[in-house]
Automatic annotation (TrEMBL), chain A:
Protein name, as recorded: TAF1A polymerase
CC per GO annotation: RNA polymerase I transcription regulator complex
GO biological process, one term: transcription by RNA polymerase I
Species of provenance: Ptilorrhoa leucosticta
UniProtKB/TrEMBL annotation, chain B:
Gene Ontology CC annotations of this record: RNA polymerase I core factor complex; RNA polymerase transcription factor SL1 complex
InterPro entries given in the database record: Rrn7_cyclin_C, Rrn7_cyclin_N, TAF1B/Rrn7, TF_Rrn7_Zf
Keywords carried by this UniProt record: DNA-binding, Metal-binding, Nucleus, Transcription, Transcription regulation, Zinc, Zinc-finger
Main location: nucleus
Domain Rrn7/TAF1B C-terminal cyclin: 258-448
Identification of the protein by name: TATA box-binding protein-associated factor RNA polymerase I subunit B
Domain annotation RRN7-type: ranges: 2-33
One MF annotation (Gene Ontology) recorded for this entry: RNA polymerase I core promoter sequence-specific DNA binding
Domain of life: Eukaryota
Domain Rrn7/TAF1B N-terminal cyclin stretches: 74-241
Amino acid sequence: SSHEHKLNFRKSKEACLSYIQDALLQKQWKRAAEFLTCYVESLEKDYSREHIGPSEMIWRIGTEILWHHSQSSMKEFNCFMEQMKTLGVKRYLKVCLEHVFHLLCNGQIDEAYQNLSVAESWRFGEQTAIQDKEMKLIEAYRGLLDYYSWSKQKNILLEHGEDGFSDLAVEQEMHSYFRKAAVNLKEIIKIPGVWDVFVKCYVDLLEFYGDHNEARQVLNEYAYNSKFPANPNAHVYLYQFLKRQGESKKSLISALKILHDIVPSHELMIDFNTMLQKSKKRKKRQLGLEVIFAALDYAGWKENAKAWSCLARQLKQIVISEKHLDWIKQEWNSRKDWWPAFHFSRYLAKRNWQENKSLSYEKALVAGILLGKDCKYFKYVSHQGCKAQLKRFRMLKKFVNRHHPVYLRISG
Amino acid sequence: RDFNERCAQCSEVNWGLTDGGRFYCRSCHNVTERTREVVNTDFITNSRVQTISKGLRKQEKNDGGCEWYICEGFQLVLKKQAEALEALGVCPQMKDEILCSFWRCYLQKSKQAYCKRPAGETVKALSACESSTDADSDPERPSLLHLLSLSESEGDLQTDCSFASSVSKVSESTSVYSGSVDGSLYLMKNQKEKLRMTMPMTLSFCYMALLWLKEPITLSELLRFVVEGHIPYLNVFQHFPEKMKLCGLDLRIFCVESWPVYEEVFNKMHELAAFLDLPRFPDITDSCFLHPDMLCMKYLMEANLPDELHNWTCRVVKKIGIGEVDFLTLMPGNKSTRKVKYDVLAAAVIVVVLKLLFLLDDHYEWLLSEFAEERNKNNTEGGPYFEFKKWYEVVKQSLDVEQKKLDEERAKYLWRCEKPLFYSIKSKSKVLKRREMVVNLQNQFGKLSGSVRRVEKPNPSSFQLSWSEENTDGSCFHGHSLKGVLQEKCGLLTAINPDYWLCTVKLCNEKLCGHLAHYREVEFPQSYHFVLGLFSFLLRIQPSYIHDEVCMIEHKLFNKKLYKKLKYNTVLRK
């Protein structure tokens, strides 16, 4: 509260806004509405020097209140949005777009489509050129809704196809939606940006109609064009596409390499490691080891039995062959200070054993190799396993004991 | 208004329009029977008229507006304010005699009426306006944009930006736009010379009249009534008669966007009194409401403090001579005496008394309170002793509640009035559209507000906080005894507290830095800050103003001791 005694219009409205803000943060929609009612007269003042003017404030605050207020209906909401569209011509398309988002959230796809069409046909002197970006987005979303319609028609067609019917009308419609969608989707993904949903849909369309070249080109652009912001998903989409196309391991690996660089903890790292382990090239196998170690650096992977089994398998293979122990040494060097506490504590040994025997088996194997037979994790788990008379734990114990000298060479 | 006849009395052709729509001669104040209807609208070509634009000429034929002068507008404002004051209980003399006289005197002294029209002025204005197509043609005349960017002392209209841009487009074809005849001239006048009239100054006029009549309304109360809406100020122009069209530059003069500030109204009032060459005001004696003894009584009650403290305030007042008639009565033009802020002074006296009795150093007052508490527990006969702690808790709670209410009210304040305002004809449709949208939005969100918004103003009351002795919860301290903090010495009651700390050892030069002292919250005890805050709330002024007065009083009180060496100690022995 301010003890400010010199009060003027501006300060009064500033205070009003801060009350609105408090109310919004506390989800007190009625109170926010009360103060907003007092704030709206700011529209009659000129705030052209301000960064955010009252019309924008009212639009944003009003949207929040109407969206959440229990007594507000969709009809009121739409009415309000229409008013907001007339308030600021510089913001017209933005308001349209946000309105569309709300309609979509509310499941009103048709209304959303109508609004998009109306917005698309809007022209306002030089504003049209200035708001070019928003216009592209509007076209893109309409394209998206066209895709959605296409998808529905496609499903109908497939159903009919199963039943032996062939519906020409449906097919025609489907194709027309395809054309409409493709045009707009293609346009937006030319502009550098993050367009995951548009790209996916467009590629889906292309694949359906057999235009794999175009699809490949689009995905390559999206993933490798340096003008586009770094986006792990781009690589994931490309990888998935290549996999669907039955591409060679080599291209699959090169697609995932960048993903590993950007997001070492990505779930596809397991696939990546699996492919790399099997490679005939030494460098690739070493990379595989790097990849799986890097993934397990992340807390989210701690209990991922599959990941541990990948690592275990590779370590085991190296230990048996006694070749490339230096790979292990290199990876372990930066981790030996913290992995023991992070993964191989006695507490975790107990917990893993209780919750997931397979996980504890794989981890014990890794621990045994990296930390030797005297490490507490290995000792506890193998002891428990032998007590429970599980064969593989006995084998595990034997294996680690036998290869203890290797550990000594690694740790030395 | 093409009334070209010569005046019967003075033979001048210099006509104005009264409220009743009759022509009166500005030179000799002769009112004729001729009314506006008789006149044809080609009058505009008359050279005496000050500001007309081509657009306005068309306007006049259609919308039934008349020509009016800025001072007429102010006259209406004053009239409304006086009527409101009368409704509040002020004697009718104020409106009919005092305020009227002051106003006429002002008009005469500032040469706006009741005198020979300075003809040269009009002609100059005319030429300036007619050749407005090229702003550079007359290098001496301030350009329109410069004019508009002059910031006013009171709340500048932030529409400068849009207005400037709209007028600059307009200026090619028309001249300065205002509904009144002399709107632009009014703003262009050299302010310093003639004490140009402003909205806050209307309150200075009111206060001056109230002071002359020694009415029981302090300036802080007056300003509070203005904010609470009991006295017209904000949007008072909506009560102007239909034919007085308000637009363009008029808005700059009559539309206020900030509440009047105590200091400003106060200072202007004194300037005004000197400007009008007023004689010494009627004496403020000790039976007057404005006398510190009386005001202290009122504030003590409102602050929920014991009545017994009144003895002490009277003692302080007497000791430092601020109850003297000559000290309290206003002598306009006398620059040597410090101007008296009656309300602030009384509040400051109470603060000083509290410091005398309780020290307020964040330790002693709580100590005294503990003793009183002990005594009150064990001994219930003879009435309770005043406990500072209890008083603090009770008052703080109420104060916090009221402050919170006040803050919310300020945030919810609606500044716009029903009557839409526009700067130029071009903006009219835009303004009306905006207004429609605002009203729609207000309706829409008003419905979602839940509780019905209280539309009526609170009843005007002199007391903002009230405490009833009938409350059995002991939350009223008026009857409590100060015995706990007093002792008898040589037949006289003195305070147990032997110490006193000065707010400041040296007073600043008010003329140089505007204040007697500089108040920073962190440098003073919390209790002192609380007490200042209490009166700051009641008077709706910054704590620093009260602090200034406290310093002034302390320096008068401890005058002799201050001449002694005080090297590093700010604590005095009494």
